[in-house]
Prior knowledge:
The complex is a heterotetramer, with 2 copies of chain A (312 residues) and 2 copies of chain C (265 residues). Chain A has helices at 2-9, 87-99, 114-125, 147-151, 153-166, 182-191, 230-243, 257-265, 276-279, 283-297, and strands spanning 15-17, 20-22, 26-28, 50-52, 69-72, 75-78, 104-109, 132-136, 171-174, 196-199, 203-206, 208-209, 214-215, 221-225, 248-251, 270-273. Chain A is an alpha/beta fold and 312 residues long. Chain A has a single domain, classed as Aldolase class I (TIM Barrel). In chain A, strand 12 and strand 13 form a beta hairpin. The longest helix of chain A has 15 residues, at 283-297. Chain C folds into 2 domains: 2-95, Elongation Factor Tu (Ef-tu), domain 3 (Beta Barrel), CATH 2.40.30; 108-262, 3-Layer(aba) Sandwich (Rossmann fold). The longest helix of chain C is centred in the last third of the chain and has 14 residues, at 173-186.
Amino acid sequence: MSTVLSKKNVPDLSIEIGPIHLKNPVLAASGTFGYGQEFEAVMDLSRLGGIVTKAITLEPRLGNPPPRIVETASGMLNSIGLANVGVAAFVRDKMPFLRSCGTAVIVNVAGRSMEEYVEVARRLSDCPGIHALEINISCPNVQEGGLAFGADPKVAAAVIGAVRDVTQLPLIAKLTPNVTDIAGIAAAVQEAGADAVSLINTLVGMAIDATRGRPELGGVTGGLSGPAIKPVALAMVWKVAQAVRIPVIGMGGIMNAGDALEFMLAGAVAVQVGTANFVDPTSTIRIVEGLEDTLRERGMGSVKEIIGALEV
Amino acid sequence: MSTVLSKKNVPDLSIEIGPIHLKNPVLAASGTFGYGQEFEAVMDLSRLGGIVTKAITLEPRLGNPPPRIVETASGMLNSIGLANVGVAAFVRDKMPFLRSCGTAVIVNVAGRSMEEYVEVARRLSDCPGIHALEINISCPNVQEGGLAFGADPKVAAAVIGAVRDVTQLPLIAKLTPNVTDIAGIAAAVQEAGADAVSLINTLVGMAIDATRGRPELGGVTGGLSGPAIKPVALAMVWKVAQAVRIPVIGMGGIMNAGDALEFMLAGAVAVQVGTANFVDPTSTIRIVEGLEDTLRERGMGSVKEIIGALEV
Amino acid sequence: MTDTKTTILHQERIVPQIFRLCLSSPGIAQEARPGQFVHLRIREGTDPLLRRPFSIHRVDRERGEVQVLYQVVGQGTRLLSRKPVGERLDALGPLGHGFEVSEEGGGVLLVAGGIGIAPRFFLCEDWLRGRAGTALIGARTRDGILCHDLLRSGGVTVHIATDDGSFGDRGVVTDLLNAQLEAGREASASPIVYACGPVAMLASVAALCRAYEVPCQVSLESRMACGLGACLGCAVKVRSSVPPGYEYQRVCTEGPVFEAEEVIW
Amino acid sequence: MTDTKTTILHQERIVPQIFRLCLSSPGIAQEARPGQFVHLRIREGTDPLLRRPFSIHRVDRERGEVQVLYQVVGQGTRLLSRKPVGERLDALGPLGHGFEVSEEGGGVLLVAGGIGIAPRFFLCEDWLRGRAGTALIGARTRDGILCHDLLRSGGVTVHIATDDGSFGDRGVVTDLLNAQLEAGREASASPIVYACGPVAMLASVAALCRAYEVPCQVSLESRMACGLGACLGCAVKVRSSVPPGYEYQRVCTEGPVFEAEEVIW
Ligand SMILES: Cc1cc2nc3c(=O)[nH]c(=O)nc-3n(C[C@H](O)[C@H](O)[C@H](O)COP(=O)(O)OP(=O)(O)OC[C@H]3O[C@@H](n4cnc5c(N)ncnc54)[C@H](O)[C@@H]3O)c2cc1C
Ligand SMILES: Cc1cc2nc3c(=O)[nH]c(=O)nc-3n(C[C@H](O)[C@H](O)[C@H](O)COP(=O)(O)OP(=O)(O)OC[C@H]3O[C@@H](n4cnc5c(N)ncnc54)[C@H](O)[C@@H]3O)c2cc1C
Ligand SMILES: Cc1cc2nc3c(=O)[nH]c(=O)nc-3n(C[C@H](O)[C@H](O)[C@H](O)COP(=O)(O)O)c2cc1C
Ligand SMILES: Cc1cc2nc3c(=O)[nH]c(=O)nc-3n(C[C@H](O)[C@H](O)[C@H](O)COP(=O)(O)O)c2cc1C
Ligand code: FES
Ligand code: FES
């Protein structure tokens, strides 16, 4: 009897992103959680819905010259520039730990060319323990490609289509907000075979040191993230959720469970938490707990009841 | 002798926006300063570089249903919806006061159709005391038109071209940030005869009341303004200033003289101050004073020395 | 209108979540009229960004003091409640269009729900001295009933209702109003009603007053940015004689006090 | 690593713009090593959003206390300086890779510019007890010379230089270092140098040490987001044996203390 009751009191946080089953809808966002290990000392990683890795490219990349970050009002700009160990070292040195975390592993894939995306995806397909690939066609911090791939629906679809051909892994297309019509791009990657879309990546932004008359960032412009961009992210998630059939993963400025709820009400099946990890490294877990509390308070059995439940 | 010295100590803040001469580069932004009169009790309006009015349409407009505003992290969303008295009442009831303010008057023009823009501009051309028209092809808060006009370079150019044909007044095209390539749109309106561009209007955003599961705004989505968007605005101003020959007026999250300097370093000839007027109604004057102090500290004779002086 | 760096003279918690804040501001104290509000900048920096509006609860013109009675409902009011005595506070005010108090009619009926009592008090002090006044105060529980002692000692007849019956009658404040209006009708004494409180309550009060053909002024709230009439953010829907039959007015300028029958609820 | 709600035990202004903050945090006090830092969340809300890193200045392991010595340079440090005793502060730490202290060599030379003295002090207390140590402290004026008394009473020989000659020698701290290294060469005693201060000073110190072939560790600063090695935001350029001859390392993880000759200035 008591087990039944207590079972009833634990709301079901699990969700599906196409073929991927997640124990809860809270993922750590790419580029903000390293390769997972960096947060091991402060939290139990197995409580996460999943970890999205820093972008992986074919060769190791050093990234952009410093300064790489600067704080802005309720946000931050970064111009890290896809610094990463490269796919070979990732598979060899980082995957063993990630595989052991007890949570879903989603690898963020970036490239300078269509061929690079394809090759990275192909190599990751052979690596056990990867639950999905997030194809980053939206990074604003690299000169060649990156943003260009995600800003045009045809090019975006071509990249996703090409990657689709070489891997069985579920594909999540990560979209850029720096476009006129994000819903059109979402629809295009859906047609090209994406299993889900995730949005938003950072907004292009800039900060200037007025005293020295120079850009604050080594990369001159950077990507804006954090609470400042939440309203923009939410509007785009809502728009995209109405435009596509595939699941939408929402992100942008999520700091707490209330923010996560807003994205899920707007139609996101899951959320990613980025900048918040820097402010409070246990943000993701606080959000999981907060969602659980909310469901309990509202007497809801499953987090799925919230998805897209916004009354307009 | 002393007059010469003191004269030398007063830096020259005046600037030109194409054919318009302004006593200083600080304007109150459209929609945030009413028709000027609302701020009369708290400040000396003649100290402003200029006032940009709330958008004027052909007929009076009631605007969107409340709630019309909601605060977000370091910003706010508005869905006012171009509520205004209409061009006839504006000319009759609002211009007499504006004309007497001792500052430049720029009228923000909006419309549902190309014809409406043209007709409003035509009627304003006959009204004395207007220094320029700011053609608002970028309002995100109206269903028909508004955003659509500013999101496509061809349509944007067509609107500006059509208005150009009916008025001798200097034309400032106000651009939306909700596009993939704002520099392309700036170039298009330049070719169509705009004397200047101003940017950015608000970013499309949304907020949700997670408790009630409803949008916070009566208009569902709204326009994001305030310090949160400053990095986005600055990046766009910098980009556009490099892409066009006509003067650029920068805005988006300017709260103090330091912010204004950042925009001018990035290439803005003048700035507009919007949301800051709500936080401190004397913001514009504080910024004028702050610019003056900065020039004096740096021993600069004219504010023009700062424009576009960013070292990248 | 003055935009002055006021100083916090004292601040006390009256009941859980409700605070009384006393500011030194001779300019605002001098000019303020019942029903007007002050627009407070909670703290420096950009979070929270906008000011917060609060009715003027009470003024002491001689000492140049202004009081606000407020409830902690979110980040801004929570931060306000933690401010120490002596701190400076940026206040804009007095703003808005207050109560219109007519000298005629059969007495004044004040109706207040919860924190809605705040502006009511200034009204009593300022205008009622010596005149017959009745205040009807409602809240969910005993803790929500504020200022009744002060009102009584000011010569006002006070009736109280709480949802749970923990103080005064069990019921809602509109029950009290109904009784008063009914009694008034029997006595052919038509009062003026001044109401402030949650929107649902105000709508009921307005409906009752219309039914009894009694004039009623309500004090409305809405989210505000400028507080000066410039942003049009605080719009409220009111009747209009021209199509489409309604228009929007600004709570900060045409209001916060409106004739109840003008408002479209 | 602990992420603990610490309490402010005391906070005092030492000279204008420089404050000493003492936190209760047994966990951090226990684990901290010289050169490591704590990452402090300045206040709730989103402005400022990110934490601020500060070197651990001193710890009292028995009492579970951690001290930070900081200079007010912007919004975050200004807000920190206003925090009252008793307030909770969210601290992440100890973070980073501190000084490597070798047991050999001819004595220890500490070089500090301005607020760069902060981590130096912990180093002295923790590692130097009984060993020969010399501290070279530089600042623009007298007011910038900190902790010299404390160091002296800890048995450290202290030399001071100020730009304006208001305290110690007139000149810069690298002049003092030059003299020390020259004297050391004559005595064939090669010291280890530990340096902390503005980047320009560190670069000069590194150049001098290289010229004298003396090992040198420098403590670097950079803007930080996570402090945990995850964001790659705190990158600093260091030499690498593989093309293109350099790479980026993380100040929060591989640093803040680096071998001076690794750093590309
Ligand atoms: C003319 C006027 C007079 C007022 N007088 C008083 C008063 O005397 N005492 C008092 O306690 N409160 C009064 N209010 C309400 C008060 O302004 C809000 O409670 C306050 O702004 C909330 O700020 P917050 O940051 O704590 O809450 P937030 O975190 O901003 O919001 C918390 C909740 O309060 C709601 N809210 C926010 N701002 C307003 C607003 N301006 N009006 C109504 N609801 C709002 C939000 O929608 C949300 O549900 C008045 C409002 C107006 C417009
Ligand atoms: C490992 C490490 C240890 C440090 N130890 C100390 C210490 O013991 N005592 C001390 O006073 N300061 C120390 N600092 C510097 C301190 O972190 C900054 O002064 C502080 O973050 C500034 O915050 P703010 O909000 O007051 O200034 P802001 O308003 O953020 O900036 C003001 C100025 O300081 C610069 N700045 C901001 N953040 C940093 C940063 N992280 N590093 C360098 N410059 C920065 C900005 O570019 C700007 O010019 C340390 C920094 C690092 C990385
Ligand atoms: C420091 C930093 C590095 C990032 N690196 C990547 C990346 O490598 N790949 C990617 O797809 N997104 C990257 N992002 C974007 C985030 O994953 C996320 O889309 C964005 O920050 C918005 O979410 P937030 O506001 O919660 O941070 C990065 C963001 C930050 C702040
Ligand atoms: C309440 C409000 C109303 C606005 N109305 C208009 C408008 O009528 N026409 C227009 O071109 N821009 C309008 N804007 C946009 C501002 O003029 C400005 O472009 C934008 O707010 C960014 O500047 P800021 O961050 O300084 O506010 C409005 C902005 C706000 C906040
Ligand atoms: S709050 Fe701006 S018009 Fe009322
Ligand atoms: S601060 Fe994030 S990696 Fe160093």
